[in-house]
Each structure stands twice: as structure tokens, then as C-alpha cells.
Amino acid sequence: MDLEVGDTVKVVRKNSVYEGVLMPTTTKNTVIKLDNGYNVGFDTGKIQIELLKKANASKSKKETPRGQKQNLPLVSILSTGGTIASRVDYRTGAVTSQFTAEDILNAIPELSEIARYNSSAIYTILSENMHPDNWIKLAQAVHEEIKNGAEGIIITHGTDTMAYTAAALSFMIQTPVPIVLVGSQRSADRPSSDNAMNAICASAVATSDIAEVCVVMHATTSDDFCHIHRGVKVRKMHTSRRDAFKSVNTLPIGRVNYKDRSITTFTTYKKRGESELSLKASLDPEVALIKYTAGASPEIIDLYINAGYRGIVIEGTGLGHVSSTWIPTIKRATGNGVPVVITSQCLNGRVCDRVYDTGRDMLKAGVIEGEDMLPEVALVKLMWTLGQTQDYEKICKIMIENLAGEITPCTTTSFQA
Amino acid sequence: MDLEVGDTVKVVRKNSVYEGVLMPTTTKNTVIKLDNGYNVGFDTGKIQIELLKKANASKSKKETPRGQKQNLPLVSILSTGGTIASRVDYRTGAVTSQFTAEDILNAIPELSEIARYNSSAIYTILSENMHPDNWIKLAQAVHEEIKNGAEGIIITHGTDTMAYTAAALSFMIQTPVPIVLVGSQRSADRPSSDNAMNAICASAVATSDIAEVCVVMHATTSDDFCHIHRGVKVRKMHTSRRDAFKSVNTLPIGRVNYKDRSITTFTTYKKRGESELSLKASLDPEVALIKYTAGASPEIIDLYINAGYRGIVIEGTGLGHVSSTWIPTIKRATGNGVPVVITSQCLNGRVCDRVYDTGRDMLKAGVIEGEDMLPEVALVKLMWTLGQTQDYEKICKIMIENLAGEITPCTTTSFQA
Predict the structure, then answer these.
(1) Per the structure, how many domains does chain A have?
(2) Catalytic residue among A30, A80, A83, A358
(3) Which residues contact A162 (CB under 8 A, 6 or more apart)?
(4) Closest approach of chain B CAs to the CA of A214, in angstroms?
(5) How far is CA B86 from CA A201, A218, A265, B158, in A?
(6) Touching B: A residues 233-292, CB under 8 Å
(7) Which residue has the higher pLDDT, A309 or B19?
(8) pLDDT at B36
(9) Cβ–Cβ < 8 Å for B368, B342
């Protein structure tokens, strides 16, 4: 039998029957992708295999024309690439970014029940290749769309660095309308793809009253609802699950029910029209995130400073610690006007350097406490802050100020000691 | 009234009454520590304050003599410092390590119902100051105790880098008896201290059938049970909560009920006597953990290599990615015999570089996939591996081999794509 990658096949092994799409493999095994999205491998000698449908037969793509209803709000879709705009290349088995925002609209007709759309492709890159320069151009494009009348923004984005981009936009743009980042963990042509549900929920948020930069992604392993995460409080917490994105140190802003697109909110948020549109799109990318590990040498700080880095965020241990051997190097850095911000590799909880000796010495050496900021968010914020001012005192002040919800204010009960 | 830090006081503000211990503060506010362990701050001008008990009155310390029951198993307690062996210095408000293992036994009389104990203080340091050299000496001490007849080992350890030490011991020692790391998140003299429950549960595990290196810590916010985490699969996931330690990418080995000290297991484990005692305590500490962040420059790899680092673990994004601009630098490093291991900053899930273009290019550049290893565990394992062999092929082979439970084997369903 002449089977090709991409063919739909039936595999019989012992008493079990499997149906799926034949996948490429570098071994002599037979690999098929099941309807639930899982790949299963078989010893080719021990199975019977039967063709159900040729690959070509399923390749005809419906191009549903899209009716724009004039009474619906206007949303701009800006695509940057990533899995939500990708499909598997069955020749290589790899996922590549091939879709534009226009393609997404054609592929998900339900979107046109929620809004009218403008769409433009800003980039077509996998998100691990995003650079602070890309954030600036994206912020400028978002600003332009809102200035031109968009009542909501959807940014399709790869999931790997989506949280970094969300944080960057949060600091760069004051927005009177929702700015929603959305992606998918499984490509559009996979049965388990989360792209349609995520895009529909994102559209519901883009037309809502939540005028913040947020990330809208699957909340559970079922297709029931998405969470609306604040752009400065969210993190990709799983390599492959559809519910990979989690709010850290806060509740999500709310959730969107997939079925009826209703939104329930869990926290306060900025309302539509509450902020004036403004853009502060300068960044200094020469900021390093250094993760302290047990026994790491203090010379690491010097490596970065000698290479010209102008700001440092340390991901310390526990409440925000490093080895006491690091203190003199940190003191020298801050003395030379290089801000050093301390966060925690625990991710959850708040740094507090008043409790243990090491922390108190760090405060004396001039570190800026990152409070309950995620390390990645502190990094992006320091890049942005250095883009706004060179004044060391002002930098320190901005870093401990809550600008976009990145720092949860301390209550009187300051620290659960 | 002549109040001192450490005095027990009653504070009346409006219609609310608070009782607690007067804490030091650098502001003009009044801060007291409540019975539940929380600190509360008050505007001194707006409260009435009354002395309940002088600090000195509560300072008499009972030195309960400890009866060693000869029919109980022999456990060695090795103390290294940290909060479990610390108390608050009320003059400064800081926590310092002041207790020895002997002090712990005196303070927690229930321990003597579970085992007989030898105790020795290996170090008295806060765990952020632990260095690979300390792991080696600790492993040697553990090995010596077991050789001399200890039927279980308890290591009291600061929580900040406890997981690093647990991983190091897991690779360095093959053990026929339990090796239990335990710590506490709140110092012994605080009402909310977790040190007694954690120590008692640790002792139950040290006398159990679970002959692995494990971490025993509070599982919930209540004083109900502790989890038994495998030493290579555990991470401190909160800066201050008592249930900060979590098993990642696996279930805990089991749990210990505080009340009756009964153990329930959730996974398979090595049983008492199953492994021969052996020690391979060589490490190469010149290994760096580099966290990739969006837009980070590939020159970072060169900074470390030029500084003489002999191994690199990258904490990439998503399934194990970095910017494609990093690929040539990685290729040069591996070409020069510097192993580069890729893990994920998502922490949860498995890296898989066969799915996207970037990952496939990384494999071609020679990266070693860290599978579902935690980044910190991959770091410690690479230090240990470089301590065992200089042969590049052998290093690669060891890194992808499951030695101590650090890699969960792939099932046929290899990747939830």
C-alpha cells in the first residue's frame, strides 16, 4: 500500500484500533496523530495499517467569505506570528507560521458575530525571536490603530514570549480600549487546537469594558472558558498544555465563557475610556536578568557590567537572597549607577529583605526590592524605565511604584512571617 | 510606659484590640507580631498600648532532657543552619541561625518517641550561602553516618537552596536508608512556626521504608500533613508560605500525617536496603544557568565561556527555545566541547525541540534536551556529570539518562502536541 504522510489511516495492534493522521518520523516506527491531538508510535512490524482517506482529499480549504456587520464595534487584529497563525508542515512535521490575521478571520467565522475587524500583519515570527525593538514597533502600531478609531485591539502572538510583550505594552501604552494578546498552544489544523476558542474569547474581551493590556488563553484543559490575565501578572507555566498561562500573585481579571461569551470579573480593572491614549515607547534593551543559583560566583555580575549592561534584575532565592559573597559586587554596581533589582525564583510571593541578615545587607548595598513582581516583568519594566530617564533616584522610584498593576500594594499586614 | 521590643502588648485602635509581641521598626509606627505570625503596623499616634508581659518573663527556656529509647531505630541529624535552626533576634528583628541539632531535639520532645538520634552540626549557615563545596562535605558526612550504622538521616537545612542540595545529594549518594532534608519557613520561636511538625514528619520518613533523598515539608497551609518530595523533583515555589515546596512534573512520593505519623505513598520508590551505599562526591562547580529572556543577546553565552565555564544550562522559553540568533553561538560552544543543556522557564512540562523550527535548529547545533528536568536540577546534574567524566559523548549520554528520578520516562504518547 502506498501511504503518505498526512493520510488518514486505521492502525490495528493486537485487539486495539487507532485512527489518525500519519506523521513523519525519523525512526522505522509508525507514528499517527489521534483526534485528541496526541501522537502514538507503533512498532511497524507489529501492526496492520489501512488507508481511510488520502492526504490530498482533506486539503481543500474553505474560504468562508466574511460579512462585516456595520453595527458591531471595530476591532483591529494585529498578527505577529506564532502557533495561532501556524500549521504543521506534514513534510517535515514542524510547525511554521503561515497564517495572517485575514486567514484567522476566514478560518473562524464566529468572530464576525462579535465585531467588525481591520487586520494587518505586523510580523510573521515565532515569539522566541521577539526583541524589544519589535515591542516598540508593535506599540506604535497599536497606538495608531486606537488613534484611528479601533474600539479594541487583538494581537495574535506566539506563546513563548507573549508575557514579555504583554508587560512591555502595559508600560508603553496608556489605553482607553482593551488590548488583548492571544495565542494558541496547538496549531490550527490539529483537532485539539485551542486557536478558535482563544480567538473568540479574545474578541469578546476586545469588545468589553476592560481597557487594559491582557492575555486571554484557555483556563482549563476543557473547552469551557478562558482566563483574562493582566499583562504584567501572567506567565507561561507549562511547555505544552493548553491551560499553560497562569496569573501569578493575583487573581485573573476575569473569565470569558466560551459558549455564550459572557465575562465575569474577579478584580478591579481600568474601564473603557478611563485612561487617555498615550504612548511612551522608549526602551533600553541593555538590561540583564541573572538567575542566582546556589554557589554562583559574584563575578557573574561583573561579566554583564563589563559587557555594557546598564541595568540588572536578579532572580534570587526565597525572600530575595543571593550569597553574601555577591554583596560587595552589587554595592559596586549600584555605586556606579547601575540599578540592581531583586526578585525571587520562587515566582509566588513577595520579596522581603528585612527578615534575614543577607537581605538586610543587600538593602544596604542598594538593591531595589521588586516586591511581588515577576522576574521577567521586572526586567521589562527596568528596560522601559531606563528608556524614560537616566536619573538614578528617579529610576529607583519608578521601579518600586505600581504603574500597571505589576506590584500588588502591601496591606497593613505586610508580610506573612 | 517603658516598653521594649519583645514585650507582649495589647494595642487598641478605634474599636479593635490586638495582642502580640512588640517588634523593632525603622519607622515611627508601632509594629506587633500577632499569634498567627502576621506583623501588623499601626500609626503610633492613633493607638493605645498596654503591657501584658515583659520580654524577660518569657525568656526562660525549658531544657527538656531527652530519653533515648534503645529499641528505636538510630537516626542521624545533621544540621546545616537555616530557619529551622534559627530564632528572631528581637533587638534587630532579623532571623539568625543559632540552634544546633541538639537544640532541636531538646525543643521537640516528640522526636524521641520516633527514633534514637545522633546529632552533629555540619554548618551553621543560611542556605543562600551554600556552595557545591558544602554539598560535597555534607555528602561525605551523610555517607559516614550511614556507614557507621545510621538507619536514617535527617538534614536540617535553610529552605532557599534546599532543593539544590537535595538534587546534589541525589546524584552523589546511592543510599540504602532514607535521607531526609527538612527546614522551616518560620523561625522556631514564632507561634506559626512549622519547625516542629516538619521535624516530626521528617523523623517519620527517616525511619520509613523510603530509601531516597527527599524533602519533607508542610503540604498545606494547615498543620495536617507534610509531603515527601523526591529530591530531584522539588522546588521552593513561594517566598514565605509554609507550603512553599511543590513537586514539579510528578506527584510527591507520598505524605506523612502529622497526627499519627502514618505515611501514604503516591509513587514507586526505592526501598530500604535496595541500593548499596556508595558515594561519588566529585562536582565541577563551573557550570552556569542562563535564563533566556526575550531579545537577550547571544553574546551572553560567550561571556560565560570566555570566563571559563565548562558547562551551560539554558532556561529557554516554551518547549525549550531561544532566539534563532543564539544558534551559531550554541553550535560554537558544543563544537568546542562545552555541553549545552536546554530546559524550560515554564518549569512544568517537557522540553521538545522537534516541533518548531527553532528547536530543530537547536538540536542540530548540539543542545542536549533536558526532558522534564527542572532547570536547577539540570544545573546540579551537569556539575556532577562533569565531576565524573571529561568525555563529551559520555556527558551527553549521562545527561539524558534518568539516574535518580530527575527525568520522567516518556510513554508511547510522547508529546501532547
Answers:
(1) 3
(2) A83
(3) A82, A127, A181, A183, A215, A236, A245
(4) 18
(5) 50, 44, 43, 10
(6) 236-241, 244, 285, 288-292
(7) A309
(8) 67
(9) yes
Short-list A199, A229, A212, CA closest to A101: A199
Average pLDDT over residues B291-300: 97
At which of A259, A279, A299 does a domain end? A279
| Segment A184-215, tens digit of pLDDT | 988 766 777 888 899 999 999 999 999 999 99
Active site residues of B: 83, 159-160, 236
Residues of chain A found within 8 Å of residue B294, distances taken between Cβ atoms: 127-128, 130-132, 161, 164-165
Q: Does the beta-carbon distance from A96 to B357 stay under 8 Å?
A: yes
Q: Are residues A296 and A234 in the same domain?
A: no
Could you tell me if B227 and B298 lie in one domain? no
**Closest to A323 (Cβ–Cβ): which among B129, B351, B356?**
B129
Tell if the CB–CB gap between B133 and A295 is shorter than 8 Å: yes
My answer on whether B218 and B121 are in the same domain is yes
Residue B235 has pLDDT above 90, yes or no: yes
With an 8 Å Cβ cutoff, are B321 and A285 in contact?
no
End-to-end Cα separation, chain B, in angstroms: 69
Give per-residue pLDDT as tens, B127-145.
999 999 999 999 999 999 9
Write the ipTM: 0.83
> Are A47 and A135 part of one and the same domain?
no
Chain B contact set for A129 (CB, 8 A): 323-325, 358
Q: Does one domain contain both B101 and B212?
A: yes
pLDDT the model gives residue A59: 37
> In angstroms, what is the C-alpha Rg of chain B?
24
Q: Judge whether A316 is closer than 8 Å to chain B, CB to CB.
A: yes
pLDDT for the residue numbered B415: 41
Domain presence at residue A414 = no
- The answer to the question of residue A167 being in a domain is yes
Whether A92 sits among the annotated catalytic residues: the reply is no
Question: pLDDT exceeding 90 applies to what percent of chain A?
Answer: 65
**What's the rounded mean pLDDT across residues B371-381?**
98
Q: Is A109 on the interface with B (CB under 8 A)?
A: no
Q: Give the distance from residue A304's alpha carbon to the nearest chain B alpha carbon, in angstroms.
A: 8
pLDDT at residue A87 is higher than 60: no
- The verdict on A348 and A365 lying in the same domain is yes
Q: How many CA atoms lie within 13 A of B7 on its CB side?
A: 16
Cβ-based burial of B169 (10 A; exposed 0-12, middle 13-18, buried ≥19) = buried
**Domain assignment of residue B307, given as a range:** 287-399
